[in-house]
Amino acid sequence: MSLFDSVLIFSVFTLILGLILGYAGVKFKLKDNPLVNQIDTILPQIQCGQCDYPGCRPYACAIASGEAKINQCPPGGQEVADALAELLGVETLELNAEHGETKPSHVVFVDEQACIGCTLCIQACPVDAFVGASKMMTQVIINECTGCDLCIPVCPVDCIYVKEITPNLITFVSDIIKVKH
Protein backbone atom coordinates (compact mmCIF):
# COMPACT_ATOMS: atom_id res chain seq x y z
CA MET A 1 0.00 0.00 0.00
CA SER A 2 1.45 3.34 -1.01
CA LEU A 3 1.39 6.60 0.88
CA PHE A 4 -1.15 7.94 -1.60
CA ASP A 5 -3.52 5.01 -0.91
CA SER A 6 -3.22 5.55 2.85
CA VAL A 7 -3.98 9.26 2.55
CA LEU A 8 -6.93 8.54 0.24
CA ILE A 9 -8.42 5.95 2.62
CA PHE A 10 -7.95 8.26 5.60
CA SER A 11 -9.54 11.18 3.70
CA VAL A 12 -12.58 9.14 2.67
CA PHE A 13 -12.97 7.83 6.24
CA THR A 14 -12.75 11.39 7.61
CA LEU A 15 -15.30 12.62 5.06
CA ILE A 16 -17.77 9.87 6.01
CA LEU A 17 -17.39 10.60 9.73
CA GLY A 18 -17.84 14.32 9.07
CA LEU A 19 -21.04 13.69 7.14
CA ILE A 20 -22.38 11.45 9.92
CA LEU A 21 -21.58 14.06 12.58
CA GLY A 22 -23.11 16.84 10.47
CA TYR A 23 -26.31 14.86 10.00
CA ALA A 24 -26.48 14.03 13.73
CA GLY A 25 -25.96 17.69 14.62
CA VAL A 26 -28.94 18.72 12.46
CA LYS A 27 -31.17 15.77 13.37
CA PHE A 28 -30.66 15.93 17.15
CA LYS A 29 -30.33 19.69 17.57
CA LEU A 30 -31.68 20.92 20.90
CA LYS A 31 -34.33 23.54 20.52
CA ASP A 32 -34.07 26.76 22.52
CA ASN A 33 -36.84 27.36 25.02
CA PRO A 34 -38.19 30.88 24.39
CA LEU A 35 -39.38 31.14 28.00
CA VAL A 36 -35.84 30.48 29.25
CA ASN A 37 -34.58 33.23 26.94
CA GLN A 38 -37.18 35.69 28.27
CA ILE A 39 -36.36 34.85 31.89
CA ASP A 40 -32.62 35.08 31.21
CA THR A 41 -33.11 38.53 29.67
CA ILE A 42 -34.73 39.78 32.88
CA LEU A 43 -31.94 38.45 35.11
CA PRO A 44 -29.03 40.85 35.78
CA GLN A 45 -26.33 38.66 34.13
CA ILE A 46 -23.96 39.00 37.07
CA GLN A 47 -23.19 35.24 37.16
CA CYS A 48 -22.60 35.45 40.92
CA GLY A 49 -24.13 32.13 41.94
CA GLN A 50 -26.02 33.58 44.92
CA CYS A 51 -29.20 31.94 43.62
CA ASP A 52 -27.58 28.49 44.14
CA TYR A 53 -27.05 28.09 40.39
CA PRO A 54 -23.72 28.65 38.59
CA GLY A 55 -25.02 31.57 36.55
CA CYS A 56 -28.07 33.40 35.27
CA ARG A 57 -28.81 31.01 32.38
CA PRO A 58 -28.93 27.87 34.60
CA TYR A 59 -31.14 29.78 37.05
CA ALA A 60 -33.43 30.79 34.17
CA CYS A 61 -33.68 27.12 33.12
CA ALA A 62 -34.51 26.13 36.70
CA ILE A 63 -37.24 28.77 36.95
CA ALA A 64 -38.74 27.72 33.60
CA SER A 65 -38.81 24.07 34.67
CA GLY A 66 -40.30 24.88 38.08
CA GLU A 67 -37.21 23.79 40.05
CA ALA A 68 -36.45 27.26 41.42
CA LYS A 69 -38.49 30.13 42.78
CA ILE A 70 -38.43 33.58 41.23
CA ASN A 71 -37.09 35.29 44.37
CA GLN A 72 -33.54 33.92 44.58
CA CYS A 73 -31.63 36.75 42.86
CA PRO A 74 -30.26 39.34 45.34
CA PRO A 75 -28.39 41.38 42.70
CA GLY A 76 -31.61 41.81 40.74
CA GLY A 77 -33.54 42.62 43.88
CA GLN A 78 -37.29 42.85 44.21
CA GLU A 79 -37.54 44.44 40.76
CA VAL A 80 -36.36 41.23 39.09
CA ALA A 81 -38.64 39.07 41.25
CA ASP A 82 -41.60 41.29 40.30
CA ALA A 83 -40.69 41.24 36.59
CA LEU A 84 -40.38 37.45 36.64
CA ALA A 85 -43.75 37.13 38.39
CA GLU A 86 -45.34 39.32 35.73
CA LEU A 87 -43.72 37.36 32.90
CA LEU A 88 -44.77 34.00 34.32
CA GLY A 89 -48.21 35.14 35.44
CA VAL A 90 -47.63 34.08 39.05
CA GLU A 91 -47.91 35.84 42.36
CA THR A 92 -44.86 37.92 43.22
CA LEU A 93 -42.69 36.74 46.09
CA GLU A 94 -40.62 38.80 48.50
CA LEU A 95 -36.89 38.50 47.86
CA ASN A 96 -35.48 35.50 49.75
CA ALA A 97 -32.92 36.84 52.25
CA GLU A 98 -31.26 33.41 52.52
CA HIS A 99 -29.56 34.09 49.17
CA GLY A 100 -28.09 37.43 50.20
CA GLU A 101 -29.07 41.05 50.16
CA THR A 102 -29.44 43.54 47.36
CA LYS A 103 -26.43 45.83 47.13
CA PRO A 104 -25.88 49.01 45.15
CA SER A 105 -24.35 48.55 41.69
CA HIS A 106 -20.60 48.32 42.01
CA VAL A 107 -17.39 47.04 40.50
CA VAL A 108 -14.13 45.99 42.09
CA PHE A 109 -10.65 47.38 41.69
CA VAL A 110 -7.23 46.09 42.70
CA ASP A 111 -4.76 47.97 44.90
CA GLU A 112 -1.73 47.67 42.62
CA GLN A 113 0.75 48.22 45.46
CA ALA A 114 -0.63 45.29 47.48
CA CYS A 115 -1.28 42.81 44.64
CA ILE A 116 1.13 39.85 44.65
CA GLY A 117 -0.01 38.38 41.32
CA CYS A 118 -1.40 35.15 42.74
CA THR A 119 -4.11 35.02 39.99
CA LEU A 120 -6.73 33.61 42.38
CA CYS A 121 -9.06 36.47 41.45
CA ILE A 122 -8.67 35.61 37.75
CA GLN A 123 -9.66 32.02 38.47
CA ALA A 124 -12.67 33.05 40.59
CA CYS A 125 -14.10 35.58 38.12
CA PRO A 126 -17.02 34.11 36.14
CA VAL A 127 -16.88 36.81 33.44
CA ASP A 128 -13.10 37.13 32.87
CA ALA A 129 -12.96 40.72 34.09
CA PHE A 130 -9.34 40.46 35.30
CA VAL A 131 -6.12 40.86 33.35
CA GLY A 132 -2.85 39.64 34.77
CA ALA A 133 -0.42 36.79 35.04
CA SER A 134 1.29 34.83 37.75
CA LYS A 135 3.67 36.98 39.81
CA MET A 136 2.46 40.07 37.92
CA MET A 137 0.10 42.79 39.08
CA THR A 138 -3.56 42.15 38.22
CA GLN A 139 -6.03 44.75 36.98
CA VAL A 140 -9.80 44.79 36.53
CA ILE A 141 -11.50 45.50 33.21
CA ILE A 142 -14.14 47.80 34.68
CA ASN A 143 -16.56 47.45 31.76
CA GLU A 144 -16.56 43.66 32.19
CA CYS A 145 -16.89 43.53 35.99
CA THR A 146 -20.42 42.61 37.08
CA GLY A 147 -19.89 43.19 40.80
CA CYS A 148 -20.43 39.56 41.81
CA ASP A 149 -17.71 39.88 44.51
CA LEU A 150 -16.53 36.26 44.01
CA CYS A 151 -12.95 37.54 43.76
CA ILE A 152 -12.90 39.26 47.16
CA PRO A 153 -12.86 36.22 49.49
CA VAL A 154 -10.14 34.41 47.50
CA CYS A 155 -7.62 37.28 47.65
CA PRO A 156 -4.92 36.33 50.19
CA VAL A 157 -3.71 39.92 50.68
CA ASP A 158 -7.09 41.72 50.66
CA CYS A 159 -6.12 44.02 47.81
CA ILE A 160 -9.52 43.95 46.06
CA TYR A 161 -11.91 46.75 46.92
CA VAL A 162 -15.49 47.60 45.99
CA LYS A 163 -16.33 50.82 44.22
CA GLU A 164 -19.96 51.88 43.78
CA ILE A 165 -21.13 52.80 40.31
CA THR A 166 -22.79 56.17 40.24
CA PRO A 167 -25.56 56.32 37.67
CA ASN A 168 -24.73 58.45 34.65
CA LEU A 169 -26.09 58.84 31.17
CA ILE A 170 -24.21 55.79 29.84
CA THR A 171 -25.50 53.42 32.56
CA PHE A 172 -29.00 54.93 32.20
CA VAL A 173 -29.07 54.26 28.43
CA SER A 174 -27.60 50.80 28.94
CA ASP A 175 -30.37 49.98 31.47
CA ILE A 176 -33.03 51.17 29.02
CA ILE A 177 -31.58 48.95 26.28
CA LYS A 178 -31.59 45.92 28.64
CA VAL A 179 -35.25 46.51 29.52
CA LYS A 180 -36.32 46.78 25.87
CA HIS A 181 -34.68 43.49 24.94
UniProtKB/TrEMBL annotation:
It is found in: Cell inner membrane. Residues 106-135, 136-165 form the 4Fe-4S ferredoxin-type domain. Residues 1-25 are annotated as: Hydrophobic. [4Fe-4S] cluster 3 binds at residues 125, 145, 148, 151. GO terms for cellular component: plasma membrane. One of its GO terms (molecular function) is electron transfer activity. The chain crosses the membrane at residues 6-26. It comes from the Bacteria. It is an enzyme of class 7 (translocase). InterPro entries: 4Fe-4S_dom, 4Fe4S_Fe-S-bd, 4Fe4S_Fe_S_CS, Elect_transpt_cplx_RnfB/RsxB, RnfB/RsxB_Proteobac, RnfB_subfamily. Belongs to the 4Fe4S bacterial-type ferredoxin family. RnfB subfamily. NCBIfam families: PRK05113.1, rnfB. Part of a membrane-bound complex that couples electron transfer with translocation of ions across the membrane. This is Ion-translocating oxidoreductase complex subunit B. It comes from Vesicomyosocius okutanii subsp. Calyptogena okutanii (strain HA).
